[in-house]
């Protein structure tokens, strides 16, 4: 049976309540938000302060919020529970709503799977009569919740249309997930054996049926260009990847396309230099137009490192340094960043800064010194320039 708007809310079956009083059933007359989340989920952490605000704002209207941690990643349930408790103490010591923990899979089965919800964070709103009123991303609650509280949401055409679209989208995504697992069953052994031709065959099967899957599109280009070093086939694939990224006006797509050209971990010497720089220029300019350095757009740390590498290798060292510094400063922005990701990104950006400056660079407690042989392409152009001048 599909869990959707108007369905009776499933039971609450959690192993432990880590915060707040236990809740065994939904009380008539109250509205509940059941929020599925995890400590490793960056977007989940980002939305939690807003959920705190909603609980405070609407508590006198009968709202009660409970977070359900049913997707923690740890070797044992005890370790997952310990991680959760420590994380909540560190990040949200004054949390004003309940947190339940479940490692049995029961809550996911009853709520997430039956509603075709495939990712977290996901919010379920339970109306005053114990029926589902809304299922979706928590950032949609600002518009929906007041209408649920005043009783107008479930009877609206907007709610019915949104719920139908959500289910259709969830079914499509679940079909794609099943297909992806089938393809990964072929791809993983090929990658582990470094059988790049077989890996390309598996990826091309995925791209044919899921052309909008960014992971497979990027891997297709990477395998052809950097594993097989097949420019004849790989360059047209990359050109189309870059064009689609620009047409989508999607920063992540553009950065992943740009990375195929300017990842310093790769030997890019086999690329035609003029086309590589031209593609890099177009992609970089689109990224900066979409998320300009002086703007308040978040997550600059995710794309600016690759853009900076393009500018460095094209000869504009000052611009490269400026972008790395902007990226580092964005790490201290208002959006919470998981500690492990922040540490990894900081180390990578500081290393790039040291290489660009040619001297030791630091950001906070993280320091790096220039690496020998970085970057190969930049040094090659510098030698070519010196030979011409000589």
TrEMBL record:
UniProt KW Metal-binding keyword: no
Alphabetically ordered keywords of this record: Redox-active center
Domain Thioredoxin: 3-154
Keyword Amino-acid biosynthesis: no
PROSITE patterns: THIOREDOXIN_1, THIOREDOXIN_2
Superkingdom to which the source organism belongs: Bacteria
Name this protein carries in UniProt: TlpA family protein disulfide reductase
Species whose genome carries this gene: Bradyrhizobium agreste
